[in-house]
Amino acid sequence: MGFFDNLLKRGANRVLSNLVNDAADKLTDKIEDKITERTDTTTTVNSSPKPAASTSTSAIDTIRNVLRTDFSMYEVKENVSPTTIGGTGKFVPYTFGLYESGQPKAFIMVTDHNKEQLRTFRWSKEEAEKNGIPFINFFTQFPNKMEYVKNRLAQNIK
Fold first, then answer.
1. The whole model's pTM is what?
2. In what helix (H) or strand (E) does residue 21 lie, and over which residues does it extend?
3. Share of the chain above pLDDT 70, in %
4. Strand boundaries in the chain, DSSP class E
5. Domain range for residue 25?
6. I need a labelling partner for 57 at 20 to 30 A (CA). Which of 50, 77, 88, 110 fits?
7. Are 107 and 140 found together in one domain?
8. Cα–Cα distance between 92 and 105 in angstroms, integer?
């Protein structure tokens, strides 16, 4: 009977493990859905939509100012969905998209440090990288001074 007991125990553990994993995935998806409820509409930088509550207004304002003054050769869009470059599924929209002649040249994401752990954030980053578009992330808990932002953008945008 030891063989059947072991078999039954392994089967029960496998079923229980699958149930727990499914429940965790569903909970994670619900949390990510709430976080990504930011609008997916694409707007130009001049319309100045309000940033999500989780991002730092000063970081967004600093980046917006640098884009206006030092990268004015690009068309700047805000809250750009990765679906615009062929992504399918759930994503976190890019805070800024830089375009030249209608083609994306870089995507910028402004997040707090916890967002990097989200699948939807990683999928947004991977979608940009898969398409050969530079992805630049700024964390809100760091100062993001003007000079730092200029240098990071200049190094990554080609």
1. 0.63
2. helix 2-35
3. 64
4. 43-44, 75-80, 94-100, 103-111, 135-139
5. 1-35
6. 88
7. yes
8. 18
